[in-house]
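Dear colleagues,

As part of the handover before I leave the project, I'm documenting each prediction I ran so the next person doesn't have to rerun anything. This entry is a single chain, and its sequence is reproduced below.
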Amino acid sequence: MNAMAVYSDEIKRVRDLGIDSAAIARATGAARATVNAWLRATRRPRAEHRDRLLELVAIADRLTGVMDDEQVGLWLQKPSVALDDERPLDAIAGGRYRAVSKVVAELENDSFS
């Protein structure tokens, strides 16, 4: 499998969790048309977008372990008190993956239960 197909598969998995191309574009800083090109495996993400995309994928993967798949997309797009009312997608877009990761770690540890 070539690198473009690998990125395409990752995007398909994220989309299956309710995160559409527009939200992926917002999180990565790429244009929606660019995200669709990644999805079609006609382009691969450049470094600046690749990092944000892989961070989004990592967070989405972890969230599937603590909530139903259909809740993942909603959680990523809702303002979070734990992120000072910022949306997790926007935090990822702003390079604050670690802040989002810490919130997810709290969910994984059942600290919010």
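The longest helix spans residues 47-63. The chain has one domain: 3-108.

All the best with the project,
I.
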